[in-house]
Amino acid sequence: MDKKCEDRKHIISVLVENQPGALARIIELFSSRGYNIESLNVGHTEDPTISRITMVAKGDEHTIEQIVKQLRRIIDVFKVRDLTDKKKLDRELLIVRVNVETPEKKEEVMRLVEIFGAQVVDVSKDTYTVELTGDEDQVDAFLELIKPMGIREMARTGRVAMVRALQGETFEEQ
Amino acid sequence: MKLSGAEILLRALELEGVEKIFGYPGGAVLDIYDRLPFSPLKHYLTRHEQGAAHAADGYARATGKVGVCFATSGPGATNLVTGLATAQIDSVPVVAFTGNVPTYMIGNDAFQEVDTVGITRPITKHNFLVKDVKELADTVKKAFHIARTGRPGVVLVDLPKDVTRELADFFEEEYKTPVQIRSYKPVLKGHPGQIKRAAKAIASAERPILYIGGGVVSSGASDLVVKMAEVANIPMTATLMGLTAVPGNHPFFLGMLGMHGTYAANMAIQESDLIIAIGARFDDRVTGKLSEFAPNAKVIHIDIDSAEIGKNKPVDIPIVGDAKLVMEELLPEVEKQVAKNREFYAVREKWILKVRSWKERYPLWYEPSDRVIKPQFVIQKIWEVTKGEAIITTDVGQHQMWVAQYYKFRFPRQLVTSGGLGTMGFGVPAAIGAKVGRPDKTVFCISGDGSFQMNMQEIVTAVHYNIPIKVAIINNGFLGMVRQWQGIFYQKNYSQVHLDVQPDFVKLVEAMGGVGLRATKPAEVEAVLKEAMAIDDRPVVIDFIVDREEDVFPMVPPGGALHEMILPSYGKKREKKAV
Q1: Closest Cα partner for B124 from B167, B85, B160?
Q2: Could you tell me if A93 and A118 lie in one domain?
């Protein structure tokens, strides 16, 4: 199959005016043009008047190219970059509450926590709440392994990303 | 000096060069209307907010200036929506100001409150909610800058009532300084390397065609594009929005392409080896079945909006930039290339002859009649009595396509029509806007009996201000285009398209204070048009009772490729009527 037609996940970083309406405009772009967002993360940058939006969207090359171009048309948007094939730092935060009714389960969860470099941040009689930061694969792998314990509740932030400094350039310099 | 928000707004509009405003007052804009009589701005009170939006749009399309409209909160704002969407999809610069409930009541479901910026976000280039009177002047300045630069479009500014009442400093000198929007910097100049590549491709193509869109008209590139066609021997076709870029009688011009395009234009596209698209967007009404559109052509695409490039059709040589600025660089390059290539004319000659033979063999055609008025005949007669120099506004449907086919335009901005959105009810208010903007020109609205009834209240506006627009109703007692589709593709199952119950348009227009005329026979058409042309202090509406079941041809069936168009019958003896 032609690689261009293949659907794959893209991670897109957007710098935007920290203005009411700017985020709405971006989200509406996705709904009005029929694109799908898998995750979306917003926070301000070192300049409090500028926000960084990191989003993960699935699509073929043509669709992603359109998404990037359509994002660039938005008046409040400064920069849009597809980071998928760049060397980047790419992290996600997971908080998950799992069942640990038996000592064996407690032990197994603690073992996984140690292996993944996670942390238990809240404890009750029969649950542990675990926090993990990692790239998407790590978070997915951890969840897969912990699933048999019984997940009570979970929250993921979605990915945030930044180009690595060793590429010799920062996002803003592009 | 401290001014109220309303005063700041009106003064800022003056500094932007605004002279005319179309609008409708209401509770949330009382403070603005209170100050309006003390401003030199001329306000036209339309009879519906939709009319105000279309009039501002028609004004902008006919003049190239930014159109401005006012409306109140709630229903005032929602009534603007169709008009704003119409202007936005055709890239027309319009700035709309809406009132809203006071800032402290926003979100309260207050009387006549809607989330105007929320509703209009997808149908504007940008919009603003002004929450502090201190930001008002700067916002107005940004609104006009965004509307008229880059790919032009609609900007809406929502003004809570308290913002229009409160006082703030206003410094005119400061207002006149250039706008700074750090996140908005449109690319205007084309990439020199790409321009060189394009010139080479143009000079070496065997079967090139120019595909001209509305961007050529709005950027003022018409002369340069026509010049390039002449220098490099390239046939030209245009979209509905781009029609007025080329003189209708130019020997290289093939007329409109697409669903109701000419045979020559559609065939030339299909058989070309190079499409030079300028300010056009490969819309579905233009391309027909996309996968079979111009299968052997390379594509040069010049457009100010990079998102349009490669959106529908893969592009070989993309050039992002303003059509006029790009053409200023491209034309000399093409001239150089053409001078280099000696065999150039011999190669091109074959193509030109082929295109010309299509044009001669399958012209636009209709069966003439001396018994019943043919709609195409009315449009040809309007062309005659206006010497081809009127500004034509249209509504949407069969009459619109007949205008595109049979009115041969002479200069840019002569056609004011809703292309992208296809808004019925556009024609009459747009004609008012166009006439207000170009009082020196005859403005003729060509409408249908369905479309006219959608905004006919605006005839009263024209009477109120003595705006002498002419309106021709191509009256077939049907929603003609829908009937045509039901006829061809739904086995003549005419469902909800009968409009034979209709007002007596002549009496109706007379009752509104205009002049109503009617023609029922071909022999009456010219006389009634001349009578209409002689009236210059009131609107005139002519009710042309036409052949009820005339269809628009050629027609590319839905889902079909351009070369699969259905042609007219050309009569029994294939007698041709060149037009």
Answers
A1: B85
A2: yes
Read off the pLDDT of residues A42-56 as tens digits, 9 standing for 90 and up. 999 999 999 999 999
Considering only CB atoms, which chain B residues are within 8 Å of A69?
306-307, 311
Q: Chain A partners of B129 at a C-beta cutoff of 8 Å?
A: 20-21
Q: Which residues of A touch B121 (CB under 8 A)?
A: 21, 24-25, 28
Cα distance between residue A25 and residue A75, in whole Å: 10
Contact yes or no for A28 and B184 at CB 8 A: no
Question: Does residue B111 carry a catalytic annotation?
Answer: yes
pLDDT tens readout for residues A133-156:
999 999 999 999 999 999 999 999
Known active-site residue B161: yes
Collapsing DSSP to helix, strand or coil, B404 comes out as: helix
**Domains present along chain B, CATH in parentheses:** 2-175 (3.40.50.970), 192-361 (3.40.50.1220), 375-552 (3.40.50.970)
Confirm if B469 and B443 have CB atoms less than 8 A apart. Answer: yes
Catalytic residue among B14, B19, B105, B112: B112
Q: What is the ipTM of this complex?
A: 0.88
Best probe of the B interface among A73, A74, A76, by most B CBs < 10 A, is A73
Domain hosting A31: range is 3-82
Instruction: Indicate if the pLDDT at residue A170 is higher than 60.
Output: no
| A9 and A68 belong to one structural domain | yes
Using CB atoms, pick whichever of B125, B129, B307 lies closest to residue A70: B307
Question: Residue B329: what are its φ and ψ, rounded to 5°?
Answer: -90, -40
In whole angstroms, give the CA distance from residue B153 to residue B411.
22
- CB spacing of B129 vs A25 below 8 angstroms: no
Same domain? For A30 and A95 the reply is no
Same-domain check for residues A78 and A96: no
Residue A5 pLDDT level (bands cut at 50, 70, 90) = confident
Rg (CA), chain A: 19
